[in-house]
Write a structure and sequence with these properties.
By secondary structure, the protein is an all-alpha fold. The chain has one domain (25-165). The protein contains four helices and two strands; from the N terminus they run E-E-H-H-H-H. Strands 1-2 form a two-stranded antiparallel ribbon. Helix 1 (27-59) runs antiparallel to helix 2 (65-101), helix 1 crosses helix 4 (139-166) and helix 2 (65-101) packs antiparallel against helix 3.
Length: 186
């Protein structure tokens, strides 16, 4: 072996890396289950958003002013929800494709998107409660939701790291006996 060649190991990624999902399900299977549950949630959320927009449009022609004001709010909330789902749906599909085809970068894109969504969600909740609009009865479910989301992101990150270790194919293999193309031997 050449003395000028040194092996450089990857930085320590061993913190918060799990071998299983929920202590009993294989990691890849757990990630696939989480991905498909996310996909189902997006589909159901999209259906409800479309129904909300339709209901708002039906109530928009009501004679009572209160119904029209409520209809406008329902249309806006439904439209915002539909836009959020239409943005998140491709990332969830990307996650599922990455898990099925062992494409590490697809999982990475989803993880980045999910972390950004988590941070934005936490900021919205902090703003809601600091503005006095939050209900104290909702707080336990919000905290549980945030903790579960962080755990599931750590499970997906574990699969991402595992994919890197299992599929770590170097870009270029070094073979000292091989000849270079278009180079004359001296």
């Amino acid at each position: 072996m050449n003395q000028n060649v040194r092996v450089v190991s990857a930085p320590n990624d061993e913190k918060f890396v799990f071998d299983t999902c929920c202590c009993c399900i294989p990691l890849r299977t757990g990630c696939l289950i989480l991905g498909y549950l996310q996909l189902i949630a997006h589909i159901i959320g999209g259906i409800f958003a479309v129904l909300a927009i339709g209901t708002g449009l039906a109530l928009l022609n009501a004679e009572d002013e209160r119904y029209r004001t409520a209809a406008q709010a329902v249309i806006i909330i439904g439209a915002v929800g539909l836009v959020i789902i239409l943005v998140a749906l491709p990332f969830t599909i990307l996650l599922l494709c990455g898990l099925h085809k062992e494409r590490r970068n697809f999982v990475k894109y989803y993880l980045v998107f999910a972390v950004v969504c988590l941070v934005l969600g936490i900021i919205v909740q902090i703003a809601k409660y600091s503005g006095g609009y939050g209900d104290s009865k909702e707080l336990p479910s919000i905290i549980i939701n945030i903790v579960l989301t962080i755990y599931f992101l750590l499970v997906l990150r574990s699969q991402y790291i595992k994919m890197g270790y299992d599929n770590n194919v170097p870009v270029q293999h070094y073979n000292p006996d091989a000849q270079l193309m278009n180079v004359q031997k001296v």
